Amino acid sequence: MLELQNVNITFYKNTVNERRALQNVSLRLEQGDFATVIGSNGAGKSTLMNAISGFYDIDSGRILLDGEDISYQKEYKRARKIGRLFQDPLKGTAPNMTIEENLGLAYTRGARRGITSGIKKRDHGFFVEKLKTLDLGLEDRLKTPVKLLSGGQRQALTLLMATIVTPRLLLLDEHTAALDPKTAGKVLAITEEIVSKNHITTMMITHNIQDALTYGNKTIVMSGGRIVLELSGQERKTMTMERLLELYSSTANDTFSDKMIL
Amino acid sequence: MAMTTIMGALELGLILALMSVGMFISFRILNIPDLTVDGSFTLGSAFAATFAVQGQSGTGVLLAVVAGALAGAVTGLLQTKLKIQPILSGILTMTALYSVNLWVMGNKPNLSFFGKDTLFTPFERFLPELAAKIVPILLLLAIVTILIRLFLGTQLGLSLRATGDNEDMVRASSINSDAMKILGLSLSNAIVSLAGAVMAQYQVYADISGGIGMMVIGLASIIVGQALLGQKGGVTRGFVAAITGAVVYRFILTFALQSGMASNDLKILSAALVVIAISIPEVKKFIQKRRARRHA
Questions:
Q1: Are strands A202-205 and A169-173 parallel, antiparallel or unpaired?
Q2: What is the separation, in whole angstroms, between the first and last Cα of chain B?
Q3: Which 3 state secondary structure label does DSSP give A100?
Q4: pLDDT tens digit string along B165-213?
Q5: Does any domain span residue B35?
Q6: CA A107 from chain center: how many Å?
Q7: A228 by DSSP, 3-state: which?
Q8: Cβ contact B161:B24 at 8 Å
Q9: CB count, 10 Å around CB of B46?
Q10: CB atoms B154 and A116 under 8 Å
Q11: Does residue B169 belong to the interface with chain A, where contact is any CB pair within 8 Å?
């Protein structure tokens, strides 16, 4: 369960460029909730995720994960509980290390990393089995350096790494935006499968409104650093792209950028 | 070249190979150009010589390793906690070490311990003269390299490698990248300092300026080795390349000296070698491009 209470972040405080990136953001996701987040550029979507993951320090408010106050915990410590994917497929894997080494590293998430072997023999079969679920043929390439994989393959591998030890929260920051439509669709399908199978509480930023309504069970609309709309249940089921756009322009004081309307 | 010259070049080359193995950790694995090296090499020599004068060579070498690790940790702390640029951090530690090294040596710019027992003395008792130095040096180099290679395969070692490979990923996968950098720089400088200690033991002598230019020599070894063995391959191949490079480099210098080059000119030769080895891929590309244009 993820809970945000009146979270505020201001960039460039006390200068002419002062910008309130998050304004009194409160949010509650139950265990297993899959929320999609939409909003135009600069709405605060990525800032929200970066605040939760600890990349940005918050100015005030509280962030609770399963009841534990993580508001001021260091980023790498939060990473023990939070899995994360970025838009750039290059960000999630170590290029000069092999698929197996990357997985070995991910598999020790949250555990104390000591001087026992990084890739244990008994884990080998487990890795192969997990890679098979991606259906990309990576199970035959365990010794291949990750830099030789395509963007889509790398992002799928990153997804596997982020969830190989089931995280308490999964943050997806436009993780399919840099992929071609076909690959993006595939990575989204894998995402949905992993998330629903393991009941992972998930937040996914997307610029694709259709995806935002199709995937998950909640949709959060952001604008100007605030959450302006939360959709769930019946209201969300009957929501159409057109009506959402309408609602958006009536609640928000800015309009969707061209990039949004895809 | 006489046999003793060849053996001398090989022995020196292997001691510098040990230093290159240490530098490989910071330069290639962590991707940090670490200038602490010039200071930590002398630090090792200083400890080894000071204690050898009192007949305690073993203690001196052990302390050299510990002191080197501490020096590396200081550079790491400057970089990670105080956010000082990597190159500047190294320069600062190196500069401070100049004073530290003089303290260790009792404010003397050089120390000779001729006639005292060294690490090589026990080997001289049961090995023929020609082998008495090369065998222990080779043994030490092999042990250190194998231990480091094994370490890099552990969970902690993988975390260290990932830190140098992709820091974004590392922070997102619950690895403390600051701690990894400090650990890597400690390990690297501990080995560099050990190499400095062995060098002092080998020469029965330590000099406050003994470490000057060592950073470039280490770089030359790593890069020349890579130019010889190719860019591809994993960590093991990288270590083999660094060791090969160090020995080849030493032979080039010995050959230059034998052909009448003044020893004062050695540093410019070292720098030139690094430039040449680094520029080989660019030159190749240039030639290919010109050829392609001509055939077009």
A1: parallel
A2: 49
A3: helix
A4: 998 888 888 899 999 999 999 999 999 999 999 999 999 999 999 999 8
A5: yes
A6: 19
A7: strand
A8: no
A9: 33
A10: yes
A11: yes
State the Cα–Cα distance between residues A174 and A255, nearest whole angstrom.
20
**A3 residue type, one letter:** E
Contacts of A179 (CB under 8 A, 6+ apart): A89, A151, A152, A155, A187
CB atoms within 10 A of CB A76: 19
Highest mean pLDDT among A166-175, A230-239, B219-228, B270-279: A166-175
Cα(B126)–Cα(B124) distance, integer angstroms: 6
> What is the tally of structural domains in chain B?
1
Residue of chain B minimizing CA distance to A171: B172
Q: Do A53 and B172 lie within an 8 Å CB cutoff?
A: yes
Nearest residue to A21 via CA among A237, A185, A214, A224: A224
- Structural domain boundaries enclosing B65: 3-211
B 136-165 residues with CB below 8 A of A?
151, 153-159, 161-162, 165
Average pLDDT of the segment spanning B146-158: 94
For residue B146, what are the contacts with CB-CB under 8 A and spacing of at least 6? none
Cβ <8 Å between B154 and A114: yes
pLDDT at B43 over 70: yes
User: What's residue A239's pLDDT?
Assistant: 86
ipTM topping 0.90: no
pLDDT surpasses 80 at B109: yes
Classify residue B220: in a domain, yes or no. Answer: no
Radius of gyration of chain B, Cα coordinates, nearest whole angstrom: 20
Single-letter amino acid code for the residue at A52: I
B103 vs A: CB within 8 A: no
Q: Is A54 helix (H, G, I), strand (E, B) or coil?
A: coil
B169/A92 Cβ within 8 A:
yes
User: E strand or H helix at A193, and its extent?
Assistant: helix A181-198
Average pLDDT score over chain A? 88
Q: What is the mean pLDDT of residues B32-45?
A: 96
CB contact under 8 A, B177 and A76: yes
Four-point Cα dihedral B260, B264, B267, B268, nearest 10: -70
With cut-offs at 50, 70 and 90, classify the pLDDT of residue A253. Answer: low
CA distance B218 to B241: 12
Quick check: is B84 in a domain? yes
Give domain status of residue B231, yes or no: no
A113 vs B: CB within 8 A: yes
pLDDT band at B284 (very low <50, low <70, confident <90, very high): confident
